[in-house]
# Entry
Amino acid sequence: MSIEQKIESLRKELNEHNYKYYVLDQPSISDYEFDMKLKELQQLETEHPEFYDPASPTIRVGGMVTKNFETVAHEHRMYSLDNSYSKEDLEDWEKRIQRILGDVEVEFTCELKYDGASISLTYEEGKLIRAVTRGDGFQGDDVTTNIKTIRSVPLQLKGDYPPKFDIRGEIILTLEGFAKMNQERIEAGEDPYMNPRNTASGSLKLQDSALVAQRPLECLLYSVAGSNLGISSQFEMLEKARSWGFKVPTVAKLCKSTKEVMQFADYWDSHRHSMPFETDGVVVKVNSIQQQEELGYTAKSPRWAMAYKFQAEQASTVLNEITYQVGRTGAITPVANLQPVLLAGTTVKRASLHNADQIAKLDVRVGDTVFVEKGGEIIPKIIAVDFSKRSADSKPTEYITHCPECATELIRKEGEAQHFCPNDTGCPTQITGRIQHFISRKAMDIEGMGSETVELLFKQGLIANYADLYTLTKEQVVPLERMADKSAENLVNGVAASKAIPFERVLFALGIRYVGETVAKKLAKAYKNIDALMAASQEELVAVDEIGERIAESVVNFFSEPANLVIIDRLKSYGLQFSLSEEQLENQTDKLKGQIFVVSGVFETVSRDELKKMIEDNGGKVASSISSKTSFVVAGDNMGPSKKTKAESLGVPIISEQEFLQKLQA
Ligand code: AMP
Ligand code: ZN
# Structure
């Protein structure tokens, strides 16, 4: 066998194993054997780059980085679906269809509605050519490199596939995969993701495809688009696509009447949790392609399809206790502690009650039987009280008047929903909360230190604010619980290393209320150093782009607090960055002040993000869509066609990357 034949046969074999494992769920070799074969192929490919093939299974491990996701027009538009929420809605829809089609028999294909991110895959001669997100339906982002890492997306088709077509589907995370990802994040001290859907869709836009490869994404397909496909019904389409090697869920039913459709919908409404992924409804499609063509489309969606959405799930349970959490800014959040109840496949013990008004509005009381509902979010909410079950001696909930952590009387400012503990310098939870925020990844990113360490250090009286971190010695830290010589050293080194963290992150780390990452960046850019910022009046602050009254007031308050000034002075003396660096200052001008830019396409000398940063650094603004206010569109290669038309019709000048860079030189 020649090297080329060897490579070919390994690719074929590995593709087949991938298919068996990820599409059919029927692995025929062990993971170990698979890995060995993959390694062998990788080795041969590295030694013989002349046999490169973009459909090789080695592509799956990722590694290619996409700096800019190119905008690509869909050859066939991606429509959305009309929604219905009741049997009556569905019947009305059927009547509308019959009116258009006349007195003919209509059959329906029912499928589940997969809750993820839509995707369109283009295949030519059996090879995956391109994968594009839905975008606005006319054009989306080219995410091919990332999609190729998803094992259930075939890189090479089998059987008698058409020479060229697009296939549509949904990129999803299974519930199990999602839970595992979150478990790993929690162990790494990171915040868990909120829901599978957003996480799946966010994954498609990661720049590093190796990271995408590590996520347990799947691709479920449901529709083929193209010409001369030789397919006459939706149901046949599903079967054909399956035979070409796609993962097409087998839960699909051909129904002769809306009655059968309803049976399918009812069945899956109550059995949806037996599926390994989230589904939020059923999609009903007119089966005959010819009838579909006759029915056509409205401005947004096909007339021949309808989504039937399941009701959000509810459960009823008993409210055992209301507890109150204190955040790092002193905000109080009431939490409902519930009798554990199974809801949407998970056991629920706690629900958010938001604030005092919410409790009053629901008139919720300890001992009540309450209805809890779970939307896409992780924390469920209480939506109502079952008053029929309330006992006669129940008493209205009295919201706490004093902080559960420090017993200080709570305040509530006019127009604010939340109560606050005003004891920001003495309330233990606020103190540790602020220090925990200070050391967090997006702030000072202090390695070797976690939330628990902060609590320990505080309890031992070693720190009372974040400035104290900088005077900690190894000798002080070693005796702490679960500390060893090495970890104590790491901690102290981590603290020292944080002195190099740039000004905008230090500003964010200070934990000024309403000053998040983005606001901190804006303020750092506008004032360049902390002294200028501290001297700014409320009026001056409001004049800064995107800084409102609320933020301005909070900044002024923070810097008028003597205790904060002492801490900032100390931090300065330890050598933290309280002004923009020389380099940051050099690259900043006002050259583009007052100008609004829209950036589109792929650029040669800079990445899209770099370009945006250059615009902002020079006083310009970046907008995401073109309007009459846009000053310039900076166009790279492959600028989206609809953007181009829009710019031209509004008379917005389109400039090239070179022209833009020249503007900055001038
Ligand atoms: P919506 O985003 O609410 O307009 O719903 C339309 C979207 O549902 C489509 O763009 C698809 O991404 C998605 N979808 C999920 N499952 C299906 C399915 N079985 N058939 C068609 N579309 C589906
Ligand atoms: Zn308190």
